Amino acid sequence: MTMGSFLLRLIVGVAVTLIIGPILVVLIVSFSSGDALVFPPPGLSLRWFAEFFGNAEMRNAFILSIILALVSACASVALGLMGAIYVARRRNALSAIIQMLVMAPLVFPALILGLALLLLYKTINMAILPGLFIAHVVVCLPYAFRAVLTSLQSFDATLEEAGQSLGAGPVRSFMLITLPIIWPGVLSGWLFAFVVSFGELNTALFLTGPGVVTLPIEIFSYLQFQGNQLVVAAASSLQVLIIILVLVVAERLVGAKQIVQR
């Protein structure tokens, strides 16, 4: 083994440890049978998961976060697909403007975006839940858009033209030829959008209200008011579990290599 290879493996090992280590600690501690956050835990128990689901605020926030992430991811992919089709097939000023606007949420700080949306909603008297949904779509859209655009840019447009020459209309040729080929990119975009929406905190912090609170906001509030940290660990473990389940389903559908490439 050369020195360069050894250093590369060492750096990768340190990076993986720093990323995975804290998550593993939270997962293990969430099963603690003790009353305080200590590692290693004195024993194993499901008491904190039972307390989590017994807490109406936590349970409702968890359900809302899942529903919001699912709907936001689907809306982001639908909008991202339409925008990516135009950008990939049109090289003009409008396509550049669309790409700039779609990617803008990645440039502006999330706190500024949340404050701007809050002022807009106050001006037009928008309800909390639709406003929160729009905010999640805005935040997730860049991830869905880039994943789909990458697939479209590597797609051979002559295949679609061949379908149209055989009698298929533009919509039918897209559904039967283009979409099945770029499907890994579409699913990858949906996956990234779901994960981002499910963990969104900064922008949503300005937009939640009574009865409409997502799980990250509820966890943040719970810690602020000196709630038991083990309940928060259980909530975090459930978030990780949901994301892992989504990743496993996506991997079964298109493969991990396709997701990573997108």
What's this, in brief?
The chain has 11 helices and no strands. The protein has helices at 3-29, 47-54, 56-89, 93-107, 110-124, 128-153, 157-165, 170-198, 215-224, 229-254, 256-261.
Q: Overview of this structure, please?
A:
- The chain has 262 residues and is an all-alpha fold.
- The chain has a single domain (55-261), classed as MetI-like (MetI-like fold), CATH 1.10.3720.10.
- It is 78% helix and 0% strand.
- It contains 11 helices and no strands.
How large, in whole angstroms, is the Cα Rg? 22 Å
Order of helices and strands: HHHHHHHHHHH
Q: Ranges with pLDDT <50 over ≥5 residues?
A: none
Query: How far apart, in Å, are the first and last alpha carbons?
Result: 31 Å
Question: What percent of residues adopt helix (DSSP H or I)?
Answer: over 70%
Q: What CATH architecture would you give?
A: Orthogonal Bundle
Query: How many beta-strand runs?
Result: 0
The average pLDDT score comes to 78
Compute the number of helices.
11
